[in-house]
Amino acid sequence: MSEIFKGMKPSRRNFLKGAAASGAALVGGTNAAKAAGDPAILEKQPWAQFLGAGVDEAPYGVPSKFEAHVRRQNVPWLTADPVSSINFTPLHELDGIITPNGLCFERHHAGVAEVDPSAYRLMINGLVDRPLVFTMQDLMRFPRENHVYFLECAANTGMEWAGAQLNGCQFTHGMIHNVMYTGIPLRLILQEAGVKTAGKWLLPEGADASGMTRSIPMEKAMDDCLVAFKMNGEALRPEQGYPVRLVVPGWEGNMWVKWLRRIEVGDQPWHHREETSKYTDLLANGQARRFTWEMDAKSVITSPSPQMPITHGPGPVVMTGVAWSGRGTIPRVDVTIDGGMNWHEARISGPSLNKSMHRFYYEFDWDGKPLLLQSRAHDSTGYVQPTKEQLRSVRGENSIYHNNGIQTWAVDAEGVAENVEIS
Ligand code: MTE
Ligand code: CO
Questions:
Q1: What's the confidence (pLDDT) of residue 365?
Q2: Whole domain around residue 180: which residue ranges?
Q3: Ligand 1 in contact with 104 (CB < 6 A)?
Q4: For residues 409 and 301, is the Cβ–Cβ distance under 8 A?
Q5: Do residues 336 and 342 touch, judged by C-beta distance below 8 A?
Q6: What is the pLDDT of residue 30?
Q7: Do 304 and 379 fall within a single domain?
Q8: Distance from CA of residue 110 to its chain's centroid?
Q9: Are the C-beta atoms of residues 335 and 346 closer than 8 Å to each other?
Q10: Share of the chain above pLDDT 70, in %
Q11: How many domains are contained in the chain?
Q12: Cβ(88) to ligand 1 under 6 A?
């Protein structure tokens, strides 16, 4: 590389050094001044010396090999068997609000069903005037809509009820993804079948070996549920329920039945396994909360965080994170860097959509002293994200599901971040 550079005139070299130095003045405390004499700017790099790959070498594009660390990960002790387990979205590596399809966390009760779209059928039965069976082609003839929604598993942050445990927002908060769905309003499909007056509940059922079912009230189905077949513009991924999944905006992920094969209309809830022994919250007094469908407002700082330490020393830090609510939008996120002594309003950037993730930023000048980072979401109903203590005082400590308490990261003088709780 330096061989090639030798052919250039020294004046050019001086110009580049000068440019790097003046850059330093513009960006203040960053490392830009060190770029003077940097071979990465002064020398011709390998990628400029040879022709690159041609257009047909990656008919379906994949990320740069330098991004190979950005991936879904599981927690080994939570994964007794991969076909009935979870992995987590790498929230700490993402920005903006959309989760790329290949990074959406997965939760399967019986592995990924491989459904052939030509043999795919969706059946509507029960309290309807006309029981119907649709093929993919039939579904493609209904009007469709596009909406961005988050899907959060009710068990997200569930390992943190008793105290700080998993070291990284991928593991504490990564059972969430935020995707643009293309789908048919469920209302239109139900109208086609004609719901009888007594029909007040739905039982969607999955085509996978778990045959997962949940009871959904008719009002929700008629309001904003979608029978979705595209995510972020392309076909659903097999892991996300290809070819068709139910989208239940703002409600717990378990209800978003994947590989949707049947919807039964009934006059009352079924109380199947996933809404009795699971997805109910045992309170301190021995009673369990029933039907906790809506996901409460929640937020987390994704950087700095345990997997995203501050590596550049004191100076400007871009703090960022995500916030969401199952009841609407997020008009405001507060952040603190001193464990709640002082709160600041973060800057929300990007679309503020109903029941979608929001992206926030807070830029500050780090003095190199230890930090206690927290974020607190406010949603459009006026609800404010509680502290973990507030949550435990109401809900006790038996719960797994619906933990939306404020998360704390402690950052030490080296910039290393750790999951902690403060009281
Ligand atoms: N649907 C079927 N048919 N089978 C399943 O195992 N898991 C549920 C739900 N729908 C599941 C399912 C759970 S618990 C969650 S949190 C979401 O799907 C996860 O969706 P994802 O894999 O797209 O992240
Ligand atoms: Co779940």
A1: 98
A2: 106-289
A3: yes
A4: yes
A5: yes
A6: 53
A7: yes
A8: 22
A9: yes
A10: 92
A11: 2
A12: no
pLDDT score for 81: 86
Q: What confidence tens digit (pLDDT) does each residue in 259-301 have?
A: 999 999 999 999 998 888 888 888 989 898 888 999 999 999 9
For ligand 1, atom 14, which residue shows the shortest CA distance?
A: 254
Our answer on whether the CB atom of 212 is closer than 6 Å to any ligand 1 atom is: yes
Residue 16 lies in a domain: no
Whether residue 266 sits in one domain with residue 158: yes
Phi, psi values for residue 325, rounded to 5°? -150, 140
Domain boundary pick from 289, 319, 344: 289
Q: Is the CB of 257 under 6 A from ligand 1?
A: yes
> How many angstroms separate the alpha carbon of residue 137 from the centre of ligand 1?
24
356 falls in which pLDDT band (50, 70, 90)? Answer: very high
Domain assignment present for 267: yes
The secondary structure of 356-407 as a DSSP string is S-EEEEEEEEE-SS-EEEEEEEE-TTS-BPPPHHHHHHHH-S---S---PPP
Q: 247 and 175: one domain?
A: yes
In a domain, 101, yes or no: no
Kindly tell me if the per-residue pLDDT of 338 is higher than 70: yes
Q: Is the pLDDT of residue 406 over 90?
A: yes
CA 315, chain centre distance (Å): 30
Mean of pLDDT values over 148-164:
96
The pTM is what? 0.91
**How deeply is 308 buried, as exposed, middle or buried, from its count of CB atoms within 10 A (0-12, 13-18, 19+)?**
buried
- Any residues with CB less than 8 A from the CB of 196 and at least 6 apart, and which? 127, 128, 129, 265
- Please report which confidence band the pLDDT of residue 31 belongs to, taking 50, 70 and 90 as the band edges: low
